[in-house]
Amino acid sequence: MAEYGPHNRTDPASTDVSTRLTETFHQHFGSPDAGILIHAPGRVNLIGEHTDYNGLPVFPMAIRHGISVVSRARSDSIIRLINTDPDFEPLEFEISGVIPPYPTGHWGNYVKAAAQVLHREHGITRGFDGVLHGEVPAAAGLSSSSAVVVASGLTLLEHGETPADRMQLMDDFAGAEAYVGTRGGGMDQAISLGAKPGSACRIDFAPLRLRHVAIPDGWTFVVASSLVPAEKSGARQAVYNQRTEECRRALKLAGRGLVGIPPGTYPELMKGRSVEELLALAERSLADPLVRRFRHVVTETDRVSQAVEAMYQDTPSWFGRLMVGSHESLRDDYEVSCPELDELVDISMAAGAFGARLTGAGFGGCIVALTSADSAAAVLSALADSYYASRLDQAPSGQELFIAAPSGGASRTTL
Ligand code: NG1
Q1: Which is more confident, 398 or 79?
Q2: Does residue 149 have its Cβ closer than 6 Å to ligand 1?
Q3: Is 400 in the pocket of ligand 1 (CB under 6 A)?
Q4: Taking the complete model, does pTM exceed 0.85, yes or no?
């Protein structure tokens, strides 16, 4: 059986989760003999936002919060999956190459996405009975949906006894999400499968490459939810897809402003050209808003390279300045922030963070702030007092405000 990396979840919560999942499984399906537990982590993207679907690099890290699935193989092609959150109804469907989707926004579509792609690409036909538990706050921009795809996909591969190359799976699962209608990139699936404990990871695309960078001692990443849901479907999906389309148009029009054969991809366009040259090209060939979308993509890519260097050199003040630059660019040029995210960034900065920015697609969800080990407490309490006190009846829970522990990639445990 394939192993999916070190099982990094040694905190007390993981034992609770495993016990809870096993009990729920027992209630619904009988004893989970020879069952397995697959855990796929969510992620916080440190910098490199709205670059992955343009084939440009990102710099995320996996977090302890994730999706766990306990399961037992069936002898047929049926998947029956219970969600421990009663708001999400149980699933039952058959694996095939063309699986009819649930209505838009249904959580089961992420499981169907994994099943359909694995049937097509790896011949998977064997179903399972399982229970899924999500610790990633839903609709928070921390990639809960991709963690569902990865966790249910790895469960299918285990029961199908089909070993698969992890890099290939990153591509397969990224493609799978087209099933739910998002024209996204490959960051979330790659980090969920490929993360290393204690490290962030620079991910490049086409071809996919992962470079792990150890997070220096004392660098503390605080994640704070705006409490504004960043829903994956509906209006937010439409704006997300609109941005991907704007980037495509900007590339085409900017390419026409060059002598010779126009480049077909952003990496081709940017190769050997400085940020200044690219911005001058944009000024000549693009009108608003495409000129601003293009400027975000180009400057954000440069910030990713600098941020990797800043982490190697253990210079958090430099990394923090890049985060603030990223947030401003996402707010003003890419127009994916909202007042609540801006407020969280301002509070974090005033309380002494090196930098802060929205993380994930935006339109709600979370921010990430970089602090020193010493100033983390001040930033956490400033956020609790200035943001959450007036919005929540009680102190924020570990779902809304937490220090992100850089975690390992998806793992498997025999129960
Ligand atoms: P979230 O925040 O999880 O919706 C989305 C995309 C990423 C990336 C970011 C923006 C998916 C599954 N996720 O993430 O690939 O484009 O937005 O940087 O499409």
Answers
A1: 79
A2: no
A3: no
A4: yes
Instruction: Please report the pLDDT score of residue 323 as a whole number.
Output: 99
Does the C-beta of 177 come closer than 6 Å to ligand 1? Answer: yes
Tell which atom from ligand 1 comes closest to the C-alpha of 365: 2
Distance 411 CA to ligand 1 centre (A): 22
Q: Write the CA distances from 358 to 24, 125, 332, 338, 343, integer angstroms.
A: 36, 40, 13, 9, 11
The string of DSSP letters for 140-177 reads SSS-HHHHHHHHHHHHHHHHTT----HHHHHHHHHHHG
Does any ligand 1 atom lie closer than 6 A to the CB of residue 143? yes
Q: Decide whether any atom of ligand 1 lies within 6 Å of the 360 Cβ.
A: yes
What is the per-residue pLDDT across 112-161, written as a single tens digit (0 to 9) for each? Answer: 999 999 999 999 999 999 999 998 877 788 888 999 999 999 999 999 99
Please identify, by atom number, the ligand 1 atom nearest to the C-alpha of residue 43.
3
- The backbone torsions φ and ψ at residue 320, rounded to the nearest 5 degrees and listed phi first, read -65, -40
Distance 206 CA to ligand 1 centre (A): 17
Determine how many CB atoms are found less than 10 A away from the CB of residue 4. 22
Transcribe 302-346 into DSSP letters: HHHHHHHHHHHTT-HHHHHHHHHHHHHHHHHTS----HHHHHHHH
Which two structure tokens, joined as six digits, stand for 198? Answer: 């204690």
Is the CB of 340 within 6 Å of ligand 1? no
| Token digits of residue 179 | 């099933």
Cα-to-chain-centroid distance, residue 126? 28
Protein residue with its CA nearest to atom 15 in ligand 1: 185
pLDDT digits (tens, 9 = 90+) for 13-49: 467 888 889 889 999 998 756 589 999 999 999 999 9
Joined together, the tokens standing for residue 139 give 């609709």
Place of tokens 């729920």: 24
Residue range 220-404, CATH number: 3.30.70.890
pLDDT digits (tens, 9 = 90+) for 266-280: 999 999 999 999 999
- 2-214+407-414, which class in CATH? alpha beta
Cα distance between residue 301 and residue 267, in whole Å:
10
- Residue ranges, comma separated, of all CATH 3.30.230.10 domains in the chain are 2-214+407-414
Show which residues are catalytic: 188
| Cα 188 to middle of ligand 1, angstroms | 7
Angle made by CA atoms 100, 101, 106, in degrees to the nearest 5:
160
Please give the angle made by the CA atoms of 263, 265 and 268, to the nearest 5 degrees.
Answer: 60
